[in-house]
Amino acid sequence: xxxxxxxxxxxxxxxxxxxxxxxxxxxxxxxxxxxxxxxxxxxxxxxxxxxxxxxxxxxxxxxxxxxxxxxxxxxxxxxxxxxxxxxxxxxxxxxxxxxxxxxxxxxxxxxxxxxxx
Amino acid sequence: xxxxxxxxxxxxxxxxxxxxxxxxxxxxxxxxxxxxxxxxxxxxxxxxxxxxxxxxxxxxxxxxxxxxxxxxxxxxxxxxxxxxxxxxxxxxxxxxxxxxxxxxxxxxxxxxxxxxx
DNA sequence: ATACACGGTTACCGCAACGAAACCGGGGGC
DNA sequence: GCCCCCGGTTTCGTTGCGGTAACCGTGTAT
Lengths: 117, 117
Known about the structure:
The structure is a homodimer of 117-residue chains.
Chain A: H1 18-25, E1 30-31, H2 32-38, H3 44-56, E2 60-65, E3 71-76, H4 78-116
Antiparallel strand pairs in A: 1-3, 2-3
The structure holds a DNA duplex (30 and 30 nucleotides).
């Protein structure tokens, strides 16, 4: 259920969950509970915060339907969709370079251990 | 002395100063004090942290010269240089879309005020 | 003796992000 | 009466990023 390896490293778009939301909405609107289920462990509080921030910035729209049980749909705006290309570049870069970063980390860790020992 | 408008909004590469360092190093190695002067208000502590993290991830190298006064040069590795393209995309996206984001924020703020009043 | 240059380190602190757990209201089903 | 659904809210606590201010060692210049 990984959206992109970018979650593991120093390159990030927006805050922790924004990119994930963009990915989940890129093929059409979805509702709160669907998003919640499809994202790793997000608490409703944090998901609400993320969605409200994105709405405020014009990345998505929030639509309430007068139904029982309640239904609320989140849908990317054009601005939100425009993030996809950027996200693609980021993911591509990460897929190419994450191994190098991890190798560098391992090498530096070893050097540190050698110095400490 | 702005590197890219990305500092003002929810799209960011790495932590607060990483992109800036990449920009300052893209045309060759520089030393600690030079970086410090050219970046907005960075404290030495935070700059050290940023540089150490980037070094650990293989983005740049740190070279000490045995001179008086001390000289230390930071230089991008190939991995560090590969960030430039990503940075360019991010800056381009931001330049194109920041006005839209700001417009959305203003619109939402007005709506909030109207509701509160 | 004092000050300055370089490249930092150390101790402390505030804020925002993130998370865990409980709770809410309006309805429906058993 | 009880629990479930949905879409949240509320409270509390933790973590981590970033910032402030002071200090450090080594050497050189005045």
